[in-house]
Write a structure and sequence with these properties.
By secondary structure, the protein is α+β, with helices and mostly antiparallel strands. The protein has 3 helices and 2 strands, in the order αββαα.
């Protein structure tokens, strides 16, 4: 599956507006603090604090809740 590439313009103040589709997908809201981390291929933008809503977004379907929960637990286990 190919990932859709989006672009953003950096303002004179160094600000970037994240595309709406990404803000909605990752539940980023106005005024929320984010963490910016250097990454191998560029930078990584993350929620400042993990939220259950953000962690489960797009991963849980009510008709498959138990199966999805087991899969998530397996992913988060070291």
């Amino acid at each position: 599956m190919k990932k859709k590439v989006t672009t953003a313009t950096i303002s004179s103040k160094g600000q970037i507006t994240l595309p709406k589709v990404l803000r909605e997908k990752y539940h980023l809201t106005e005024g929320e603090k984010a963490i910016i981390l250097p990454a191998r291929e560029g930078i990584l933008v993350k929620h400042r604090e993990l939220s259950l809503r953000g962690m489960l977004a797009g991963k849980i379907q009510t008709d498959r809740f138990e199966k999805d929960l087991r899969e998530l637990r397996r992913e988060w286990t070291l």
